[in-house]
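Design a sequence for this backbone.
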């Protein structure tokens, strides 16, 4: 009997995706973030925003929103970060960036996510500010 490492390795690599889940990417709209330049501009804006709002403690149900102007058309990135827990939760800078950039990289027209630890980020490109 031979030990097959490949199936075990594949399962281990898939575990983070199962735990973290994938963002909800609604269909429709303009696929702005399908262009590398657009994703890069959004990521730069996310870096700045997360450096300003984190680390911080969010009260249960607290939501912080921001409309950022970026150097790509459409000129606005609408961002939301919500603590969906009933109690206080600390958001780190790295966690903020990771959660929002995952949406930008996964959802060409923007989207939202819900993590197992209670964060509910959203990121959407737009010609206007919605937040």
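Sequence:
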């Amino acid at each position: 009997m031979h030990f097959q490492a490949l199936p075990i390795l594949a399962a281990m690599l898939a575990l983070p995706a199962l735990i973290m889940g994938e963002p909800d990417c609604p269909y429709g709209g303009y696929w702005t973030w399908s262009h590398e330049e657009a994703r890069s501009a959004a990521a730069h804006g996310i870096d700045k925003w997360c450096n300003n709002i984190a680390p911080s403690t969010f009260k249960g149900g607290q939501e912080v929103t921001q409309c950022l102007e970026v150097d790509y058309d459409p000129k606005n990135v609408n961002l939301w970060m919500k603590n969906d827990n009933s109690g206080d939760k600390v958001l780190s800078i790295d966690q903020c960036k990771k959660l929002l950039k995952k949406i930008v990289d996964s959802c060409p027209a923007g989207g939202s996510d819900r993590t197992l630890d209670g964060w509910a980020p959203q990121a959407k490109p737009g010609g206007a500010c919605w937040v």
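Confidence is low (pLDDT under 50) at residues 6-19.
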